[in-house]
Amino acid sequence: MINHGLLLTLLAEYAIFTLINGGLLMQTQKDEVRQKILAAATDEFYNHNFSNASLRNIAATANITPGNIYRYFKNKIELYNAVVDPAWQGINSLFNDNSIEYSHLTSKSFLDLSKEIGEVFINNQKQFFILINTDENSPNGNVKNIILNQINAQITLDMKKDMPLKEIDPMFLNIIAVAIIEAMIYIFRHFDGNVEKLNTMLYKTMGLILHNLHETIAEENVPC
Predict the structure, then answer these.
(1) Using one digit for the tens of pLDDT, what is the confidence trace for 147-183?
(2) What is the secondary structure of 43-99 as a DSSP string?
(3) What is the CA radius of gyration of the chain?
(4) Torsion over CA of 61, 192, 120 and 27, rounded to 10 degrees?
């Protein structure tokens, strides 16, 4: 004789099992599609700029329809932000670190700072260049100028601890900031996969630019 109570229990448990696992499968598939979109978008924004990047091209690369992108991202801006956010967060945390005193860096702090910069770049190489090469219509604006201003502000804040602000030449500090960002971009553009070489170049460059910065700024006249 069939035990209808037991049968109903088994059917209910099977239905719950199917529902849970089906939901997990669907979520996994959605995550995979989202990652494909992000990977395709990263290449598209990297090879073009924000204005010229095409959602149709992104969809084709990800093997989905253009309309399917909008199931995951509200618009092109939201997709762009999702692509560059890891690099943007890394850059912001790096140059808004109030524990770094640029004018009093020791050999160890030079090395630590160089490794931090290198790590941010290595983990987000394409995203870094997407940000640096942004056009005027990109959501983040001119990222290079934003970074320059962040470095400049941090060095100025550091220098104010030791000398009156009126004695600090803003033009000189801006030159230092420009030297740092342009040197980093040059090093990153020539990165060949050798992480040790990358960190060494960053270390030597940061040391060259920032060594004895406080004493240099404090000098009133050029030595004859």
Answers:
(1) 888 778 777 777 776 666 556 777 888 888 888 889 9
(2) HHHHHS-TTT--HHHHHHHTTS-HHHHTTT-SSHHHHHHHHHHHHHHHHHHHHT-TT
(3) 26
(4) 30
Q: Tell me how far apart the alpha carbons of residues 152 and 115 are, in angstroms, rounded to a whole number.
A: 20
- Does residue 147 contact residue 91 with C-beta atoms inside 8 Å? yes
Nearest by Cα to 156 from 168, 167, 171: 168
* pLDDT value at residue 25: 40
Residues 50/78, Cβ–Cβ less than 8 Å: no
Residue with tokens 């529902």: 19
- Summarize pLDDT for 83-138 with one digit per residue, the tens: 999 888 888 777 666 555 555 555 556 667 777 788 888 988 999 899 888 777 78
Helix (H, G, I), strand (E, B) or coil at 162: coil
Residues 6 or more apart whose Cβ sits within 8 Å of residue 220:
none
pTM of whole model > 0.70? yes
- Residue at token pair 């030079």: 110
For 8-23, what is each residue's pLDDT tens digit?
564 555 555 455 555 4
Question: How far apart, in Å, do the first and last CA atoms of the chain sit?
Answer: 110
Q: How far apart are CA 128 and CA 163, in angstroms?
A: 35
Report the residue count for the chain: 224
Residue labelled with tokens 């004493």: 215
